[in-house]
TrEMBL record:
GO terms for cellular component: plasma membrane. This is Transporter. Its main location: membrane. It comes from Bifidobacterium animalis subsp. lactis CNCM I-2494. The keyword Transmembrane helix applies. It is a multi-pass membrane protein. Keywords: Cell membrane, Membrane, Transmembrane, Transmembrane helix.
Amino acid sequence: MSTFRTCWRVLFAQRTMILVYIVYLSLMMFGLSWSIIQNLSNTDNSTTYETLRPEVAVVDRNGGVGSGFSDSLRKFLSKDCDLVDVGTTSQDLQTAAASNYADLIVIIPEHYVDDLAAAFTSDSAVPELQMVTSFTGAYGSLAKLQVEDFLNLTRMTALADAASSGSSVSVASLNAAAGSVIADLTGNADAYPQIAIAEDPAGTDDREANGRYAFQTMMDMGAYPMVAAMFTITAMTMGSFSGARVRRRMYASPQRTGSMLFQQFACCGLFGVLVSLFYLALALALPVAAGLPITGVDPRGFLLCALTMVAYSLTAAASGFMVSMIAVNSAAINAIANVYGLVIMFTSGMAFPVDLMPKVMIVIGKCTPGWWFCRSISAAMNSEGTVSVSNWFPGIALVLLFGVAFIALGLALSQMRRLRPNLAAPASTQLAEV
């Protein structure tokens, strides 16, 4: 156990690598999936309908005694529209129309109210308002319908008042009719009913499915940081025992070399299990932080995902063990770890959907443990919420076989180093001190 404790101290001496690969890299990768989780969380499940309000400008060129008509029109439109000011000059109106500043511009021409009253009295053609509709959306057209509704209501009210009083329609009666329309609608609770959305019985299931998919996405996102972190930390930790002086002392120790290597790898493997628990906690915490329920995550599926992550961490540590037997420097270890991790990232299906990947990338991905890690996660946490152990087991078995192959190659390299005599010799002449 002395080798295990020594290896543990050496491992935690790699504080910079732990900070970069375990904390920073994992948070960066999981941060990339945060936008996906937020989109899933923002899926509309409300029970009230909130429509977008078009922006409408009312330009009154009639003025004078007809100002009451324009004021009533503004009040009528303000219920469902946002009123904006675009100016009154021709240049202002042209600029507003060209820049799409408002969805609808309503221009009340000069003497419009007088001409409208005369048309009602003589049954002549009704004058029209000048309206400019935005060309980028349909909100202006919908607001135009509201203007026409106001004109129809004002017309019917003015004609009804004129018929009851036996008088003709005048400018004053039109202003009064427009004000009466606003007063009647303001006091009527049913004039502007709220649109309610019936609660979808499957809404809860949809939220649970989104939470389950978010958890699966987070687990897949752990493929790259896990292999990069465990590869680097294991290789550098076990590489610390590969120095010539350290190896001579280890070979002179009464302990068997295999036992010491096992304790070193066990230390790194235990650290990998702790990192796996850290990733599992993040995979659960981020969907909860986004407001998604995790009740859709099947406990059996979660257990299989945990086993998959632990097995993958051990395989990543095994790959680092294999490289540590070559005795390369830290710069080479970092380079190999990042290249290896990026290959897994772009060929395992975590960065791109498998349907969009070319066959060459799929073939390369199947030659790495990352591909089978993602397939095992998909089998344990599929879109229907069911757990397929039969589809999960082959993937996790291949992940472990990759680990066994890495360890076997590492042991073979270690045996070759012990058989080479120059490995036991000092790298330079050491002068004895008297």
